[in-house]
Structure formats: C-alpha cells, structure tokens
Amino acid sequence: MKLKTFYFLLSALVLVSCGGEKKDSTTETNETTEETSEWVSLFDGETFNGWKTYGQDTMSDSWSIVDGAIACNAGIGEENVGFDIGSLVTTSTYGNFEFELEYKIAKGGNSGIFYHVVESEEYGTDYTTGPEYQVLDDEFSRSETEPYKMVASNYAMHAPSESKKPNPHMEWNQVKIIYNNGHVEHWLNGEKVLEFEEGSADWLAKKAAGKWANSDTYAKYKEGAFSLQNHGDEVHFRNIRVKELK
Predict the structure, then answer these.
(1) Is 96 exposed, middle or buried (0-12, 13-18, 19+ CB in 10 A)?
(2) How far apart are CA 64 and CA 50, in angstroms?
(3) For 54-100, what is each residue's pLDDT tens digit?
(4) How far apart are CA 72 and CA 86, in angstroms?
C-alpha cells in the first residue's frame, strides 16, 4: 500500500513539473512577441502618412516615394544643386528610443538624420534644435573633410570610430541610433561606431569649442521629432522604425 502511494505521488509530481515547463515556454513566447511588437514602423512604403515638411503644412516637391523608399529629389544624379530648406519630419515625437533605417546616397552626397527636433517659426530648421547622425558619401564628399563631420558622426561634435565600414554611394547602409537618458549610440552596418553622454563634461567642452558654441537651442529638448535632411542631394530612406525606451 505504501509503495502504491509512493508511485501515485511520484506521477503527480512529474505531471506538475511538466505543466510548469509548459507554462514557462508559453510565457517566454509571449514575452518575445511583446518585445517584437514594441517596434513601430514610421514609413509604410507607399505614403507620407506620419510625415510632413518642416515648417510647412504641405509636402515639398523635393520629396517623393520611389521603389518603396522615401527619396529626396533635390539633387537627382551626381551633381549637387545646393542646400535646400525642406527637411522631412515625423508628426510624432519621441524621448528615449531605439531608431533604425536604411539609406543610400548619391556620389558625393550629404544628408542627415536628426532627433529631438522641435518645429517652430522661431527656429526655422531642424538642425537648430536636433542633434544629427551625419549621412554622407565619405569617399567623394564635396562638403566635409573633418572626421567629426563624416558619416555616422554626431555632426560637428563627435567623430565615429575609424573602423566604420560604410557601403559605397547608392548602396544601402543600415543605421541605428539609441538615445536613453542622455546616453547616445551610433551604429552603422551592424557595428557600434560612436558612443557618448549628452551633457557630460566632454560633450559640453566640444559644444563650447565648435559650431554650436553660441547656440542655446542645440540639443536643448529631450523629446522631439525625427527629421530627414534635404541638403540638395539625392538620398533614399527605407525600413524606418522606432522602439520607445522607458
């Protein structure tokens, strides 16, 4: 009788154990799904829903959608037609985030990705408030030569790693920007090429010694829109998405 009781209890223990494992597996699956669902697409590949031209109520003719990508038409071809105000900004704003997109740019082209951009008649442009992940064809650049102004730099502030590997002009490159309570990371083609702390002593020294020395609005805001710069060159953006960080 005692032996039967032992086997009964052993069987019950095995069933409970198996049930527990199944629950853990389900929980893990749900957590994975929840994490994946945090990503929000900012471009549907067909329309400009969720976007507008900075400072305008209508879309600038400088932008179009070509083969499922946002394209800046200002400088189609290899010739630079000069800087043109008319950057594209999101209608939603973000504070802490992980942001990703792919871009390809014309030979010698210049553009940029801004974040924490505040739209106002007082400011006039995206770069008045927003820090910039520089988008540039380094190899044939016509406008920039300093390391802290080349592709993947925190423009005019921090130079990226020399190990960066941008693809040639008119080939797709992968970008990731992370902003989390002042901690910033720039990624290019799967490699972290820059990391800095916004507002740190080093950051303040670079600001005081450079392009933004006299600006009291540069990187002032900790929440704002994303902006794709129209710098007068052909550039394409696709697979644009963001994940908000708590």
Answers:
(1) middle
(2) 14
(3) 999 888 888 999 999 999 986 544 454 555 568 999 999 999 999 99
(4) 10
pLDDT in tens, 35-52: 445 999 999 999 999 999
Q: Which residue type does 104 have?
A: K
End-to-end CA distance of the chain: 59
Cβ atoms of 74 and 61 within 8 Å: the answer is no
By C-alpha distance, which of 111, 243, 239, 107 is closest to 180? 243
Contact 230, 84 (CB under 8 A): yes
Residue 185 burial by Cβ neighbours in a 10 Å radius (0-12, 13-18, 19+): middle
> CA of 245: how far to CAs of 27, 38, 80, 132, 137, in Å?
22, 9, 38, 19, 31
Nearest residue to 116 (alpha-carbon basis) of 57, 187, 180:
180
| Contact (CB, 8 A) for 242 and 51 | no
